[in-house]
Design a protein that fits this description.
This protein has two domains: 1-117, no CATH class; 183-263, Leucine-rich Repeat Variant (Alpha Horseshoe). The chain contains eleven helices and seven strands. It has helices at 3-23, 30-35, 120-133, 138-146, 155-163, 168-178, 184-196, 200-211, 216-228, 232-243, 249-261, and strands at 40-46, 52-54, 58-61, 66-69, 84-91, 94-102, 112-117. The termini are far apart.
């Protein structure tokens, strides 16, 4: 990052810390602070993990390798390395709307309660707990920003949510972001969902998530599913995604085996 960019980041973080110092209440959890906030907008910020930057409408991963659009429009702005900014509309202590951005500035809002900067681990746990219990679109919206928290390994909680009793859209989001986690253990978790989960759509999402991973184990798992899984739809999906990776010799060998067997 350039010296000018580092200076802007430091200034933004310092400003947030000043705001946070006014908003913090000693001894209260983030959950309780949100629950006791007056009706209106509640916001807080936390550090983003390395490789994540943005400018409001855009979030970029791994130095531009992947980009996620989070709003309308784009600009030629500096991609800022955080913070992650969360704004929630709260009614009777319950979040009913959630916006997440990286970098940029706060939106102009009326009736805002600013909780300042919070520890990334506390933010991630709060957002994942919110996703797990929410009965609205807030649950699905909370998954993505939780994965951005600096120094937090989110895949175990994502796996719990994917296997749990949350709304179906939340479970699918958990499976998708589980597939993005850079850990071989996440691949193991995805294959266990495919084998053990009852809901077929969640299992199909897990097959897709496996297809997005680059580890050899993920490709091996896709081939195993395509070759012998008892659910025809999962075999079909695995074969489809393997076809998108046909430059790998193992994929070509498998497709040849499959086609030759069908003569």
């Amino acid at each position: 990052m350039s010296g000018a960019g580092s200076g802007r980041l430091a200034a933004a973080t310092a400003a947030l810390l000043v705001i946070g110092g006014r908003g913090e209440v000693a001894g209260q959890s983030l959950e309780s602070r949100v629950a006791t906030a007056p009706d209106g907008w509640v916001r807080f910020a936390y550090e983003a993990r390395p490789g994540v930057c943005g400018h409001g409408d855009w979030v970029t991963f791994n130095d531009g390798e992947r980009r996620v659009r989070r709003g309308g429009g784009s600009c030629d702005c500096v991609c800022e390395e955080g913070p992650v900014r969360i704004e929630m509309r709260v009614r009777d202590g319950v979040p009913v709307d959630l916006d997440a951005d990286v970098g940029g500035t706060w939106r102009a809002r009326d009736d805002v309660t600013d909780l300042g900067v919070v520890p990334p681990a506390e933010a991630a746990e709060y957002l994942l707990a919110l996703a797990e219990r929410a009965r609205s679109d807030v649950g699905e919206d909370a998954i993505f920003p939780a994965t951005l928290a600096r120094g937090v390994e989110t895949w175990p909680r994502l796996l719990e949510i994917a296997r749990g009793e949350a709304r179906m859209d939340v479970r699918r989001q958990a499976v998708f972001w589980l597939g993005q986690e850079a850990s071989e253990r996440a691949t193991e978790g995805l294959t266990s969902i495919i084998d053990d989960e009852d809901d077929l759509e969640v299992r199909e999402q897990a097959v897709f998530a496996l297809s997005q991973r680059s580890e050899p184990d993920a490709l091996d798992a896709l081939i195993r599913i395509a070759r012998a899984h008892p659910e025809p739809r999962l075999r079909k999906r695995a074969i489809f995604w393997l076809g998108q990776r046909g430059d790998d010799p193992r994929v070509l060998d498998f497709l040849e085996e499959l086609l030759a067997g069908g003569r």
